[in-house]
Amino acid sequence: GAGVSQSPSNKVTEKGKDVELRCDPISGHTALYWYRQSLGQGLEFLIYFQGNSAPDKSGLPSDRFSAERTGGSVSTLTIQRTQQEDSAVYLCASSTRGQNYGYTFGSGTRLTVV
Amino acid sequence: QQQVKQSPQSLIVQKGGISIINCAYENTAFDYFPWYQQFPGKGPALLIAIRPDVSEKKEGRFTISFNKSAKQFSLHIMDSQPGDSATYFCAASKGSSYKLIFGSGTRLLVRP
Questions:
Q1: What is the distance between the alpha carbons of residues A93 and A48, in angstroms, rounded to a whole number?
Q2: A97 closest CA partner among A47, A44, A49, A35
Q3: Where are the beta strands (DSSP E) in chain A?
Q4: CA torsion A93→B91→A36→A24, rounded to 10°?
Q5: To the nearest whole number, what is the mean pLDDT of chain A?
Q6: B40: contact with A, CB 8 A cutoff
């Protein structure tokens, strides 16, 4: 596609429920990243995919967070047993390869846990 | 551990004025310093970036100034316009890393 697409754009969920956030990167971009943007905070790195592999999961805050990528394309970030502190905007980005430049970010999913 | 500190948190500037946002970093291995602009409801977009082999980079009304010895860099927006109203993030990265370390952001409001 022309840009990075994320869905849903907004998600309200009850505490304790599981949620799935989807990212559709730019076609041909082998690298995909998830970042989290909490209110008043900068972007926090969560995970990096190269193809379908995740060589760096160091930013995932707990074992309630997991992510996968299939077909070298779409990625899903799953948060199990959501907590209020999980409320944030989850941003996905892609680039032609794993690099610190050339990121294209999606518009994000705003997650609210009530 | 916050590796990139950004200030101010918010900034109000009159149209035509100069907006200045500052960032300081700790890790001397960082060698790539981009600035991102984010409008409400949108993802951040790369605005301008600098590497430490130069002290200044200018693109249109946007200029990055870089002080390697002080481990600081700043964004200057000349002739600020209401359309520049957005949140600005500085970031830093090292070598061939894929990971960006972001500052906490500055919300800029340019009054007409």
A1: 10
A2: A49
A3: 5-7, 10-13, 19-24, 31-37, 43-50, 53-56, 65-69, 75-79, 88-95, 104-105, 109-113
A4: 0
A5: 94
A6: no
Q: How confident is the model at residue A1 (pLDDT cuts 50, 70, 90)?
A: low
Looking only at the bridges linking them, the beta strands covering A109-113 and A10-13 are parallel
Q: Is the peptide bond between B112 and the residue preceding it cis, with omega within 30 degrees of 0? A: no
Instruction: Return d(Cα A19, Cα A17) in angstroms, integer.
Output: 7
- The size of the A-B interface in CB pairs under 8 A is 60
- List pLDDT tens digits, range A42-58: 899 999 999 999 999 99
Q: Smallest Cα–Cα separation from A24: which of A43, A38, A7?
A: A7
pLDDT per position as a tens digit, B32-70: 999 999 999 999 999 999 998 899 999 999 999 999 999
Tell me how far the alpha carbon of residue B47 is from its chain's centroid.
8
Contact A98 B6 (CB under 8 A): no
Distances, alpha carbon B73 to alpha carbons B21, B48, B68, in Å: 9, 12, 8
